[in-house]
Amino acid sequence: MNIIARLIASAACCVLASASAFAADTVRVGVIGSSADAPFFVAQDMGYFADEGIEPQFESMPSLARQVVPLSSGDLDVGNGAVSAGLYNAVSRDIPMKVVADKGHNAPGSSYNVFLVRKDLYDDGSIRSFADFKGRKVATIGIGSADMSIINEAMKTVGMSYDDIEQTALALPNHMVTLQNKGIDITLTPEPFATLIVEKGIAVKLAAVGDFYPNQQQSVVIYGGRFIKERPEVAQRFMNAYLRGVRTYMASVKDGTMTGEGADKVIASIVKNSSTKDVELLKRIYAVNINTDGSVNFEGMKKDWDFLNSKGLIENSVTPEDIVDMSFAEKATAKLDGGK
How far apart are CA 233 and CA 300, in angstroms? Predict the structure, then answer.
């Protein structure tokens, strides 16, 4: 090959490499910014998104409520957060969104959402069981969340119901302060806040959600309607990478904590990308459990919907059947398990 031919070939390679470099599809992802976002971060840092030709653009949005408008407009492609009345009501107002994968459930023996009781009330025997919740103030993250159904399930174990307690809404950072100031009796608090509160001697862990409500569906991955309709192939590739991230993350979970295979790399990814920077704390807290096939606890979602609807919090008639689409997760699972 003469020098001119070599130069032409070299230039062609450069053009192809340049084209490849710019071929990645940008996907805008709303993240909470906590350790629960681990599969997204792992998929990014370990190259799973890159393998699928995806360039994720993470947008910090601390709740699903903040993500609804950009998901509807197409300014956000992927969201995530807790299942709530607000999600169903948004869809009922012609804001197309679909629940497409699990992003956190409360597994038996490994639940990241727990009931905490003020230490003084536990120590003096005032609150030692759900039966002692009667008439007490219980703080959750908000009215209309699935936490209301969780409380109801807890109270049903002692022949009572949600109506026997007094619920109040508190932002998570305020759970610790309000317990410390004795402004609240009980909280339903997720990790890592739960562990921090207990370790400071402010409260006692009374019960984990997964132990009385197995696999309650706490958090989900959501696709915006425009993302599904206009870029279904990109949406599929995103799911392929996400579930690879889930599998790597879950491999790091041993006995409910991030102390298993590859945990150091997973924790490093969380520390790098989230607001949680304490490595040792991440090893101590109960890890979020996520199904490696992306499946959600549909029956649990129906149970929570029934309760929220009974309280008049669901508008119109949008049901779990209307908002769940497992097709992307099913195809991704088939591919990851050796299919095409």
Answer: 30
Q: In the listed set 212, 229, 264, which residue is the last one of a domain according to the structure? A: 212
| Per-position pLDDT tens, the chain of length 340 | 555 545 445 554 554 444 344 579 999 999 988 888 999 999 999 999 999 999 999 999 878 888 988 998 899 999 999 899 989 998 988 888 999 999 999 999 888 999 999 999 999 999 999 999 999 999 998 889 999 999 999 999 999 999 999 999 998 889 999 999 999 999 999 999 999 999 999 999 999 999 999 999 999 999 999 999 999 999 999 999 999 999 999 999 999 999 999 999 999 999 999 988 999 999 999 999 999 999 999 999 999 999 999 999 998 889 999 999 999 999 999 999 986 5
> How far out from the chain centre does Cα 99 lie?
12
The total of structural domains in the chain comes to 2
Please indicate, yes or no, whether residues 145 and 158 belong to a single structural domain of this protein. Answer: yes
Torsion angle in degrees (nearest 10) through CA of 242, 246, 252, 258: 100
Range(s) of the domain holding residue 185: 113-212
Contact 206, 188 (CB under 8 A): no
State pTM to two decimals: 0.90
Query: Under a CB-based contact definition with an 8 Å cutoff, are residues 187 and 138 in contact?
Result: yes
